[in-house]
Amino acid sequence: MGSPAAQPDATLLLGIAAGGVVGSLGRYAVGLALPHPAGSFPWSTLVVNVTGALAMGLLVAFLLDRPGAHRLARPVVGVGVLGGWTTFSAFAVDVVTLLETGHGGEAGAYVLASFLGGVLAVSLGSAVGQRIWRMAA
User: Fold this and answer.
1) Deepest in the core among 42, 71, 74, 129, taking most CB within 10 A?
2) DSSP 3-state assignment of 37?
3) What is the helix, strand, coil percentage profile of the chain, to 5?
4) Does the keyword Chloroplast apply (predicted)?
């Protein structure tokens, strides 16, 4: 058996929770700015998920170029802020709702746009981040 998992400290947990609040409130604001009735294309969810993927690419590039980055950078920003910002569950509900309301073509386009957009956004964020962080070093 492996060693027991390290116990997170209060600072780590509070940082992740605070980051989650920031990300969730931001996602909520985007939902208010880009509302969509059930069965219509879920632009707000697509926007937060693709921009979250872009931000994750930037974060990963930053952390790889700075091995001495603060120990809370990845959990607070990656798990907290970006975890609160992005939403797989809303994506899944949106796909099912589009299908149930007879919008199969839009559901397929949404799945494709979310997947390809997310992968391309992480790649772009990583490439841009590597250039930015190396120039700044």
Assistant:
1) 42
2) coil
3) 75, 0, 25
4) no
Q: Give the number of other Cβ atoms within 10 Å of residue 73's Cβ.
A: 14
- Structure tokens given for 70: 């603060």
pLDDT digits (tens, 9 = 90+) for 26-81: 999 999 999 999 889 999 999 999 999 999 999 999 998 888 889 999 999 999 99
* DSSP 8-state symbol, 75: I
Q: pLDDT tens digits for 110-127? A: 999 999 999 999 999 999
What SS3 class is residue 72? coil
Identity of the amino acid at 47: V
Q: Which residues are annotated as a binding site?
A: 83, 86
For the chain, the domains span 11-136
Annotated binding site for Na(+): 83, 86
Residue from 77, 72, 56, 66 nearest 124 by CA: 56
Spatial distance between the Cα atoms of 9 and 20, rounded to a whole number of angstroms:
17
- The torsion angles phi and psi of 27, rounded to 5 degrees, stand at -60, -40
